[in-house]
Design goal:
CATH architecture of the largest domain: 3-Layer(aba) Sandwich
Shape: globular
Radius of gyration: 21 Å
Strand order of the largest sheet: 6-5-4-7-8-11-10
Order of helices and strands: EEEHHEHEHEHEHEHEHEEHHEHEEHEHEE
Number of strands: 17
Distance between the termini: 44 Å
Length: 406
């Protein structure tokens, strides 16, 4: 396989998580009578441009289809983040009613609703019908296609260009990252700005966040790697901010060459990544061993709870849960069910592990001993939401970056 960023031959393994179904391919009851499709989940690292990437096995159309079940608006923390982003962008770049905002991967309108409320004209691009329909119900204009250079050129030919392009938490989901970033260049006004948010590879390595690896994420970015992709496609990275979201993310600001002066933060973060060895293959070599320890510790913990007669359930039927459950080989005998707030998931089953997904009322009825929080990046929000678990001396657990029971 060649690098999807620079085209160099890939020869170095970063981590191998075995084989699993696509993480958002939730199962209906009838699906339990049929086999699932499993694909290798293996990540390689390019020693020419330092882009980490999954091997190609699953087409994006297969994963981001009309039944896609991830809706951004079910997290109040994420809605707060989106609202702050909209206000910040309007203030920083002086957006007005004469401006135009384009969001790529608009999901259920979680972000554009705030630009709309501020009177900023906006347009969303969202190929998954389930989430796109939810956005349209909020009164947001959505085009149901995949974004890329030809798509951007089609909008430009219609006279549509943007002062701000928001492509937050989507860059990792793109199989052809060069075509995708070229679409930004086509769509930007002369002084327009594109922002991309994505989990920072440095945090993924330091905090062993292997559960953020799944088939829907084709790439895992350092600033070193993403800056090279932007340069290759005619854009400058002029600023970068570090965010606490998703266990530690970057917010990257891009523009047409010379349109905005470069912040000192760009050079400072590049220097930090180099100091951490992200431009040396040695920094990637022991990740597999560290991942295996997390898996082994978690499985041992669950087996011990079963031996002691304690009931263990999960919270958050997220892709993170599916990566962990499938790599660890966990089934309903160890985690009885997973609670989720998304009605589109309730009554279905996790792919691979086939653990049932139930609503939150089940917790109060069953009073389990342990609730495993799979979306550890939302741990504080979840603990506050499920505070009543303490009423029956129930405890919470997270597995990453290390096993913690509290």
């Amino acid at each position: 396989m060649n690098c999807r960023g620079c085209g160099a031959k890939l020869t170095h393994k970063f981590v191998d998580l075995g084989a699993a179904p696509p993480s958002n391919a939730y199962l209906a009851a009838g699906d339990l009578l049929r086999p699932e499709e499993y694909y290798p989940l293996r990540v390689l690292v390019c020693d020419a441009c330092w882009l980490c990437q999954t091997e190609d096995f699953v087409a994006s159309e297969h994963m981001f289809d009309e039944n896609y079940a991830y809706f951004s608006s079910f997290s109040t923390m994420w809605l707060d983040h989106a609202k702050r982003y909209a206000s910040y962008m309007v203030d920083r770049f002086s957006l007005t009613g004469e401006s135009h905002v384009l969001e790529v991967a608009a999901n259920d309108g979680y972000l554009l609703q705030y630009f709309k409320a501020l009177g900023i004209p906006c347009l969303g691009v969202e190929p998954t019908r389930s989430t796109a329909d939810a956005a349209r119900e909020k009164g947001i204009e959505i085009i149901g296609e995949f974004f890329g250079q030809s798509f951007g050129q089609g909008l430009r030919d219609k006279g549509i260009t943007s002062d701000l392009i928001a492509a937050n938490n989507v860059l990792a989901h793109v199989p052809d990252v060069n075509d995708f970033v070229s679409g930004f260049r086509v769509m930007l006004k002369p002084h327009g700005v594109v922002t991309c948010e994505f989990p920072h590879l440095l945090n993924l390595i330091d905090h062993r966040q292997f559960d953020t690896i799944y088939h829907e994420h084709y790439s895992y970015f350092s600033l070193l790697a993403v800056s090279a992709i932007f340069r290759r496609n005619g854009l400058d990275v002029f600023d970068v901010e570090e965010l606490p979201t998703h266990g530690g993310s970057l917010r990257l600001f891009g523009c047409l060459p010379g349109a905005h002066p470069e912040s000192d933060r760009v050079g400072a973060l590049l220097a930090r990544e180099r100091a951490a060895g992200l431009d040396d293959i040695g920094a990637y070599g022991n990740f597999q061993e560290r991942v295996n320890k997390i898996k082994d510790d978690f499985v041992s913990f669950l087996i011990e709870q079963k031996r002691q007669g304690r009931r263990v359930v999960g919270y958050g039927a997220a892709a993170k849960a599916n990566t962990l459950m499938n790599y660890a080989g966990i089934r309903p005998d160890l985690v009885e069910y997973v609670v989720d707030r998304n009605p589109a998931k309730i009554g279905k089953y996790l792919p691979g592990s086939r653990i049932p997904i139930v609503d939150e009322e089940r917790l109060s009825r069953d009073r389990p001993d342990i609730v495993v929080i799979f979306p550890w990046n939302l741990m504080e929000e979840v603990v506050a939401q499920l505070h009543y678990v303490r009423d029956w001396s129930g405890r919470f657990c997270v597995a990453i970056p290390e096993l913690k029971v509290f």
